[in-house]
Amino acid sequence: MNKLFDNEGPLMSFLSKLADLVWLNILTIIFCIPIITAGASLTAMYTVTIKMVNKEEGYISKNFFQAFKKNFKQATVIWIGVMLASILFYGDYRIVTYSGIAFPKALPIALTAVLLLMYCTYLYVFPVLSRYDNTIKNTIKNSFLLSISNLPRTLLIIAIHLVLPVAVYFSQALLPIMFLMGLTLPAYASSVLFEGIFKKLEDKMEENQEESLQEQDVGK
Fold first, then answer.
1. What is the pLDDT of residues 68-100, one digit of tens each?
2. CB atoms < 10 A from the CB of 185, how many?
């Protein structure tokens, strides 16, 4: 029984993790409020949640602010692009669906498909940015490719992000969880999957690099 309440015990570790997620949620929301900084805030959030998955989180605030500062420029540009593209395509979807104008029947389906692909890319883009140094173009491109090549996990990530809002819709008693960890709880759960995806990618890249070096040695 004493081990249960030990500082290093499972219960205290669990409660400590929850406290970290609550504090991270507060930081993320505060830095999302200006709207324009939301991309950098989400990137910093994923930096921390992925560290938490790997048990490397250290000081939550320090890691958050370091990642926020490091990725601010790229994350902000990407976030502005996400907002503009979302508004544009959603507006097109509304016009095609509700304007009463006779558009080709395939057009709403095509727009829905584009919106879904955009959403899948959006789910990956800030975790990818938090992990890798790359150009904005390549970050978006790689996010899209990863979301498609890991489709089963992508669908699971989508489900993870939908669970809490749907649960709150059916039970208002869960609203406190939404307020306390509405962003970070799905992000943490998703980070478990992202870490697996990134590790698989990095192992493959390392394997290709070793093969390339071996070929060079043979060439000599």
1. 999 999 999 999 999 999 888 888 878 877 777
2. 22
